[in-house]
Amino acid sequence: MAASSSLSFRPLLSSLATDLKDVGLSPANLVPSFGDSLVSFGLKRATTLRGKRLLLSGNKFKVNCSADREMDVSTSAVVDGVADCLNEIELKEPSISTILMNFENKFDPYNAMNTPLYQTATFKQPSATENGPYDYTRSGNPTRDALESLLAELDKADRAFCFTSGMAALAAVAHLVGTGEEIVAGDDLYGGSDRLLSQVIPKTGVVVKRVNTSDLDEIASAIGPWTKLVWLESPTNPRQIISDIRKIAEMAHAHGAIVLVDNSIMSPVLSQPLDLGADIVMHSATKFIAGHSDVMAGVLAVKGDSLAKQLYFLQNAEGSGLAPFDCWICLRGIKTMALRVEKQQDNAQKIAEFLASHPRVTQVNYAGLADHPGRALHYSQAKGAGSVLSFLTGSLALSKHIVETTKYFSITVSFGSVKSLISLPCFMSHASIPSAVREARGLSEDLIRISVGIEDVNDLIADLDYALKTGPL
């Protein structure tokens, strides 16, 4: 349309106003454009539509545009003779923050603004020979179903399953592998995962091979006809080693194996490994999903009905499903996940840059730094570097002093909380790994891990600076 055209859309938009209002739109949301035979409208901002009165199909909906039109001479020819037309409005994919605020809980018949807590162990049945939609909370609960449905949407999964912890979720995945079959797993994993892989799973007759997952040749050499599962983290915890999820998935699938990515350190806000070819994504929901250090939970987001059915069977058979109250706590915390992750990441970037410039710090491990060797690969498969980082001082005495001197960083395991946390992994989260194995993998005792919270970043930097300056020489 020419810039000088002055088409009046009032009659047209007034005829659409009722339908638009029902789905959260108004004429102010629409930007008109013209084709050969119809007038089209684009959205100024993404909008989620939940059925209502307009016909939905995928990410498009159609509006009946029958109305009298007032046009000037320069534009009348464009739409002349069009009495009834269907305008097609393209909807952008809603962001995670929008999904979190507009999640439709189909498991609540009363449309409560907040998901109700179904704090019950069992459900009454319609008769002695009929079963209702729920019977026993171990097998299913409306509160858990609501959380699982939301998490599946966030990770673009076919199904999601909530467990009593991240380790319970990982144990369920391990049970997909039978006696004599193989798991190829990264050699730089969370300490609890390492304990499961080295001390528990081998007792079931499963062969576990440990590899550097950032080395594609090493992975290719390890994967064989008996490999059923490839297990990795990217970035790794705590050394921030980056692996090529796409290529690893291609190699695994070529041998009939599935890929598990522990995405706890990233959260669905920053990374969605299912889109990169992974088959299962695990989150320790204790971390960024719940976000407040007040609940323990794990999540598996899954592609494919067959895999989903197997994992549901294990969740039910082993009784490892997350309790209703814990699900409700996660649902409450997850609403602010996008805001928290953004603030935490902004803080972490500034802290990483400060540490990298400090004379008493010998190395900083954070994918957001320009000199990180895996930075380009990481940003090709994630939206940001997150808020967990680690650094070395070259001195255990200095590192111990820093951890014990800071006043705004709590000495604790875990990460992803709104509160900043600090630890020496070799003595805490990774203490179960034998010291010789840790050293061989480059996990030295002076390494400090930080989980950055939402505090004022200047206060956090000043706190670290004081601890560094006052430490032993």
TrEMBL record:
Protein's UniProt keywords contain Lyase: yes
Which CDD domains does this one have?
Answer: CGS_like
Q: Which cofactor does it need?
A: pyridoxal 5'-phosphate
What's an example of a GO molecular-function annotation for this chain?
Answer: cysteine-S-conjugate beta-lyase activity
Q: What Gene3D superfamilies is this protein classified in?
A: Aspartate Aminotransferase, domain 1, Type I PLP-dependent aspartate aminotransferase-like (Major domain)
Q: Return the GO cellular component terms, semicolon-separated.
A: cytoplasm
Q: Which keywords fit this entry according to its UniProt record? A: Amino-acid biosynthesis, Lyase, Methionine biosynthesis, Pyridoxal phosphate
User: Which superkingdom is the protein from?
Assistant: Eukaryota
Pfam families given for it? Cys_Met_Meta_PP
Entry EC number(s): 4.4.1.13
As its record notes, the protein acts as a catalyst of: an S-substituted L-cysteine + H2O = a thiol + pyruvate + NH4(+); L,L-cystathionine + H2O = L-homocysteine + pyruvate + NH4(+)
Its GO biological process annotations read: 'de novo' L-methionine biosynthetic process; transsulfuration
Q: Which PROSITE patterns match?
A: CYS_MET_METAB_PP
Similarity comment: family membership = Belongs to the trans-sulfuration enzymes family.
Q: Which PANTHER family match?
A: CYSTATHIONINE BETA-LYASE (PTHR11808:SF50), TRANS-SULFURATION ENZYME FAMILY MEMBER (PTHR11808)
Question: Quaternary structure per UniProt?
Answer: Forms homodimers. May form homotetramers from two homodimers.
Q: What is this protein called?
A: Cystathionine beta-lyase, chloroplastic
What species does this protein belong to? Prunus armeniaca (Apricot)
